[in-house]
Amino acid sequence: MAAPAERPTVKSPADAANLVLLEMAGLEQEHLRTIILDTKNHVLKIHTVYIGSLNTAVMRVGELFREAIRLNSAALIIVHNHPSGDPTPSAEDVQVTRQVVEAGKLLSIDVLDHLVIGQARWVSLKERGLGF
User: Fold this and answer.
1) CATH number at residue 63
2) Percentage above 90 pLDDT, the chain
3) What residues have CB less than 8 Å from 80, skipping those under 6 apart?
4) pTM of the shown model
């Protein structure tokens, strides 16, 4: 693991999106990842939690936190792509976000945002007030 000064720092949703946008925008299956952060929002790891089918990523909330717990993380950001290219959050995206935010509170891991990646565009659920 790189020294903290060498790790990217996430200060905004755009910072987080820029870490994954190029790689995730063109994926043909839905990928669910977490950007795992330390107490100063330095990136500890970008972890792939799940790779789904064409339009769904079914996961257990506990799976999303496993690596963050292992790394003794302070916070995380959920990121997933929509293979359709349209980053508009679905009702399911909002529901999952609510569940994950609540689980994070119980685990003392702050869920800072949930980003949906589309074709060269992204949406922050937190900025839109969805699920937070």
Assistant:
1) 3.40.140.10
2) 83
3) 30, 31, 32, 33, 57, 93, 114, 115, 116, 117
4) 0.92
